[in-house]
Amino acid sequence: MPKKKTERIRLKDPKEIASMREAGKLVAECFAALQEAVRPAITLCELDRIVTKLIEQHGALPLYKNYRGNPPDHPPFPGVICASINQEVCHGLPDDRRLKEGDIVAVDIGLKYNDFCGDACVTYAIGKISPQAQKLMDVTQECLRLGIAAARAGNRLSDIGLAIEKHAKKNGFSVVREWGGHGIGRNLHEAPSVPHTGPGGLGPILLPGMVFTIEPMINEGRPEWKLLNDGGTVVRKDGRLSSQFEHTIVVTENGAEVLTKL
């Protein structure tokens, strides 16, 4: 059987990186707009409308709306944001469900601005949440920070996943293995695929100009998941909480630069 062709990782030049900073800045502005809106009793579709309006005002394009993924007959995604509540891992539908006190909700935003993409995710606490939920969110943010710190020129791609998995396990949490980060540029999904688990020392050497997302999904309990009949929402099999934070980053000579810094 012939070997599967490996997609080439294309380095971004300074002009392209400058454009991606602008796209990332707009993603960050969307999250800033949500900061005051994410509260008990608001519906997920109301959050979707807030982001839709801001994207349209800037002449940008949403990346998730009508996205079909793989296979191509996959149901088109109905919203501009992904909104994943509590036991939902990712790709939750922004429907008419209302957030309630004690929930956590991961909001994922992807957009294209001046021909380049930006992608990030933030998990929000709705009112007062449990100490365990707060710990999960804190550890997920720390996992993202450590993954970004490992994205240094000369490291291997899987060193990012090792840093994430090591910190999650140290704190009694698990990492979803099958859903990872991805290269990004003029397209939402480009090479490489970015693992969130070890072992380290594998994959391509990180070079200045590589742009990709790091988006760990950290869980209470075991990492197994299933896809709901809606064709998009990924949920925990054990029904326990999951949290996600994500940034788009570029590898530089002096470490990683976060392009979607909030």
Low-pLDDT runs: 1-5
The count of DSSP E runs of length 2 or more, i.e. the number of strands, is 15
Write down the overall geometry: globular
Please identify the top-level CATH class.
Alpha Beta
Structural class: alpha+beta
**CATH homologous superfamily annotation:** Creatinase/methionine aminopeptidase superfamily
CATH topology group: Creatine Amidinohydrolase
Biggest β-sheet strands, sense, barrel: 4 strands, antiparallel
Please tell me how large the radius of gyration is: 17 Å
- Rounded to the nearest angstrom, the distance between the terminal CA atoms is 47 Å
Give average pLDDT, whole number: 95
Q: Which strand-content bin applies to the residues? A: 25-35%
Discrete helix count: 4
The structural domain count equals: 1
Helix content: 25-40%
In the CATH classification, which architecture applies? Alpha-Beta Complex
H/E element string? HHEEEEEHHEEEEEEEEEE
Keywords:
4-stranded antiparallel β-sheet, disordered N terminus, 3-stranded antiparallel β-sheet, 262 residues, alpha+beta, 27% helix, Creatine Amidinohydrolase
